[in-house]
Amino acid sequence: MLYGAKSSVLMGIEETFGTAATLAYKLPFTNESLNQKIEALKSEANLGLRAPKSLAPGKEGAAGSIEVELYPELAGVLFYLALGKASAEDPDSTPDSGDEYSKIVAAGVNDSLPSATIQVDHAGQKFDYLGMKLNQLQLNAAVGAIPNVSLDWLGKEEADAAATIGSLTEPGNEPFFFREIAVYTDEFTTVTDKYSNIQLTIANNLDGDDYRLDGTGKRKSVAAQNLDITGSVELIFDASTVSDEYAKFKNFTDAALALTFEKNTQKLRIYLPRIRFSEATHDISGAGKILLKANITALLDSNNEAIIVEDHVNTSGTY
After folding, report:
1. Do 8 and 17 contact (CB within 8 A), yes or no?
2. Rounded alpha-carbon distances, angstroms, from residue 316 to 3, 5, 141, 275, 312
3. Confidence of residue 53 (pLDDT cuts 50, 70, 90)
4. Are the CB atoms for 295 and 281 separated by under 8 Å?
5. Which of 108, 141, 166, 301 supports an S-S bond with 147, CB 3.0-4.6 Å?
């Protein structure tokens, strides 16, 4: 008998789509549902019989989800897979001064998203998934909960014994805690203490239907389409909320939102330079405090950036 507690999930970044990568990251997962998918084609031929004689394999692929807790050592690579473009930044141009970080932004229209090889190990029973791309990343950060990331994957295939294990980056002793999260209403200058829940979704709207008559039945590619960055927030409804966030909702004007996850010197920063609030409600459900619940949508700013992620743990600019 196999148990989930004895399972592990390893991941590596592929150099070529669908070609097994060296496994370099151990994911701190809580739920996993990656599986091989095979479309079953039933023969419709009339043979004078009451039941079909053939069930043929059709389109093949791999898909599923993984939910992980947000650890400093692994956070950057997840956002890199969701967005696709990273570079090394050194604000003071002085190496090793402590301000270096990896800047992660969305890939351009002519760029491809990186793909990953993921190995699921059920107590020695290993399944390798190749050509896995992130269809959606959802960040959940709330008061009283460890922040987590839900990852929705779409890929090429499940393969046997395809990947090798290299030098592993593993989670440290602790994930980020909710008390280590700070929220800003601009680019990390003005702190706000009104937010109690933030959900942020990066959706790549992957095209999972690129099949060819190539004798394999497998996806030729998994390409990103339009990028949608949306979310929902809950914040304490008071006079300052009415004059700020709610006023921006009513007038449909721009706002900004930034989050910092910081544990000692380990830090991840997320900046949405231009957002709009929508569907803001302030319903009363009892005698307790009133919450403003709103949806947000990230828009391109003057630099054509909708989101900027700073990984201050891995400062190399590569993953």
Report:
1. no
2. 37, 33, 26, 29, 9
3. confident
4. no
5. 141
Pairwise CA distance, residues 200 & 82, whole Å: 12
Q: What is the mean pLDDT of the chain?
A: 94
Residues 303 and 284: beta-carbon distance below 8 Å:
no
pLDDT above 70: residue 7:
yes
Residue 300 has pLDDT above 60, yes or no: yes
The pair of three-digit structure tokens given for residue 87, joined into one six-digit string: 């570079």
**R_g over Cα of the chain:** 22
Average pLDDT over residues 204-219: 95
Residues recorded for the chain = 319
For the chain, percent helix, then strand, then coil, each to nearest 5? 10, 50, 40
Q: How far is residue 162's CA from residue 64's CA, in Å, rounded to a whole number?
A: 19
Check pLDDT > 70 for residue 313. yes
- For residue 303, the tally of other CB atoms under 10 A from its CB is 10
Distance of CA 30 to the CA centre of its chain: 15
What would the mean pLDDT of 136-157 be, rounded to a whole number? 98
Q: Hey, CA dihedral for 140, 141, 146, 149, is it positive or negative?
A: positive
Q: What is the pLDDT of residues 87-124, one digit of tens each?
A: 999 999 998 888 999 999 999 998 999 999 999 999 88
φ/ψ (deg, to 5) at 229: -120, 110
113 token code pair: 């998203």
pTM flag (> 0.90): yes
Pick from 196, 119, 108, 204: nearest CA to 154: 204
DSSP category for residue 272: E
What are the distances in angstroms from CA 125 to CA 2, 4, 161, 304?
9, 12, 10, 45
3-state secondary structure of 180: helix
